[in-house]
Amino acid sequence: MLRIPTLFAFLFFTGCVVTVHDDAPHEPAPLPPVEEAPFIEWADAGCEWSAYYGDFAWWFEADVFDSNGFEDVASVYADVMDWDGHWVDSFELAQSLDNRLMWGADWLEQSTWLDCRYSYYTVEFVAYDWLGGIDVLEVIPLTY
């Protein structure tokens, strides 16, 4: 069994020298960016007659800003509610390739649960970011 003085003597014969230079200025590590929720600046929805398709066409548009960058916005939805707050239909909006702040979708009425002649809908635009931040903006759609 080695005794403690012998162990310390063995450590000195290993030939390892450690030098610490502490003359560099110490700068604090940068803070991680603050997570900000997305912000729906503007939104609009409505329907109009499309002579090309021979059907009413619903449109949903929103401008979504996120101070962490437009890449932080994960998805935007338009949830259509009835006058009494019951859900009617939902639509996922696509991000514009020309203007990354714009999101939109167009749907023919025959492919939805909506009626363009019914004027008691509200549309809740909901924007989600990748870390769970959300924003909601409610609008009344333009109906025929």
What's the total number of strands? 7
Run of helices and strands: HEEEEEEE
Computed CA radius of gyration, to the nearest angstrom:
30 Å
Percent strand equals 35-45%
Please state the overall shape, judged from the principal axes of the Cα atoms: elongated
Structural class: mainly beta
Brief descriptors of the model:
single chain, 144 residues, mainly beta, Immunoglobulin-like, seven-stranded antiparallel beta sheet, elongated
Give a summary of the structure in a few sentences.
The chain is mainly β. It is 6% helix and 43% strand. The chain has one helix at 4-12; strands at 39-50, 55-65, 73-81, 87-95, 102-108, 122-129, 134-139.
Descriptive account of the structure:
The protein has 144 residues and is mostly beta strands. It has a domain at 47-139: Immunoglobulin-like (Sandwich), CATH 2.60.40. It has one helix and seven strands; from the N terminus they run αβββββββ. The longest helix is centred in the N-terminal third of the chain and has 9 residues, at 4-12.
